[in-house]
TrEMBL record:
One of its GO terms (molecular function) is alanine racemase activity. Coiled coil: none annotated. This is Alanine racemase. The lineage of its organism: Bacteria, Pseudomonadati, Bacteroidota, Cytophagia, Cytophagales. The keyword Lyase applies. InterPro entries: Ala_racemase_N, D-amino_acid_metab_enzyme, D-ser_dehydrat-like_dom, D-ser_dehydrat-like_sf, PLP-binding_barrel. It comes from Fontibacter flavus.
Length: 366
């Protein structure tokens, strides 16, 4: 039976072949640069995708919360890194998980470092998150006083050990010159490595964001990369030049419920509760909440003439339809929507359907 026969309401499709191609390409890039690939699984949040990743030599992963770490614990990962400034209220949860799973956390201040030093019952590694221009979070790259204060406090305990420096140059999402950002980020990590390597000979440096890791070829002496969105990609990444539309591995299947040919609009069951509300802007100022594709037995096909979701509400989506689409579609058909932000869409949908018609797990599933 075709996977299409399983669908009666909005359903997130996952193309295993495309996902594996994305995993292999990034793993090959990491290998070429003699780096370890530690992908951020906030995008996929799936044991099944994790098993695929292991086939490409991936042994460690990154997550964005202790809840997500708990989901992945006990599934054969050599280490799970929680890449969010650690929340001190979750120290006891961390203790519970660290009893049986190698974990590392992200530290940016003395207060949390001190709490972990005093209260950890099992070994936990930590990265100091560095801010070299993004401005969201992290220790300023030249704030050696704070870096050394964190290191001093960590040394007072027996269970908190320093792994290295973590840098997320997230401004690659809104600044066109990604090479310049990476030159600055790589230089910052190299400077820190050289400064602290004598005292901490095993320290590593990690950099991670999908736009940069997708297009940069030379990572200098950075040891590890940790992109996440590359596993699925999405239309935002296409817009940023990280990938091609053909590289997007997920599509939201939506039922067509009405067609207004005079207005060149198609109403679908698929809105903000399914896609989230991430948006791109077309050259004429029209909002774009997702790109339309035709669903086929073997996956999906990109139309010659573009159509896209021009507006969404909670459950509704209105497609700005091309003449090609209007000539092919009828009420009751299914269309595919390539999401603007696949991480958020996956989080909304909480599971996937493979092209073989099998459900694929997600951390948020009931």
């Amino acid at each position: 039976m075709s996977y299409l026969n399983h669908i009666t309401s909005p359903t997130l499709l996952l193309d295993e072949k495309i996902c594996r191609q994305n995993l292999k390409k990034m793993a090959d890039k990491a290998h070429k640069n003699r780096m370890k690939l530690v992908p951020h699984f906030k995008t996929a949040q799936s044991h099944t995708v994790g098993e695929w990743a292991k086939e490409y030599g991936i042994k460690e992963i990154t997550v964005s919360s202790i809840k997500m770490a708990e989901y992945f614990c006990g599934h054969g990962w050599e280490n799970i890194h929680i890449a969010f400034p650690f929340n001190p209220l979750e120290t006891q949860k961390l203790n519970k998980l660290a009893k049986n799973q190698s974990l590392s956390v992200q530290l940016i201040n003395e207060e949390v470092t001190e709490k972990l030093t005093d209260e950890l019952e099992h070994p936990v590694g930590f990265f100091i998150e560095i801010d070299a221009g993004y401005g969201r979070t992290g220790v300023e790259v030249t704030d050696f006083g704070l870096i050394e204060a964190i290191l001093r406090k960590a040394k007072k305990g027996k269970n908190l050990y320093f792994k290295g420096f973590y840098l997320h140059p997230g401004h690659t999402y809104y600044i066109e010159n990604k090479q310049k950002i990476y030159d600055e980020s790589i230089a910052a990590l190299s400077m820190l490595k050289n400064k602290y390597l004598t005292e901490y000979p095993n320290l590593v440096t990690r950099i991670g964001d999908t736009p940069g890791c997708s297009v940069i070829d030379d990572f200098g002496d950075v040891d590890e990369m940790g992109p996440g969105n590359f596993v699925f990609y999405d239309m935002m990444q296409v817009n940023l030049g990280s990938c091609k539309t053909e590289d997007v591995a997920v599509a939201l299947a939506v039922p067509v419920v009405d067609i207004k040919k005079d207005r060149k609009e198609i109403l679908v069951h698929g809105g903000g509760v399914h896609l989230a509300k991430d948006v791109l802007t077309e050259p004429d100022g029209t909002k774009n909440f997702g790109e339309v594709v035709y669903l086929k037995e073997a996956g999906w096909e990109i139309p010659i003439q573009r159509s896209f979701l021009k507006s969404i509400s909670q459950e509704h989506g209105i497609i700005k339809a091309s003449d090609e689409l209007l000539s092919k579609v009828k009420v009751g058909d299914l269309l595919g929507i390539l999401p603007i932000h696949s991480c958020m869409t996956a989080d909304c949908m909480e599971e996937y359907l493979s092209l073989a018609g099998k459900k694929i797990d997600h951390a948020e599933a009931g």
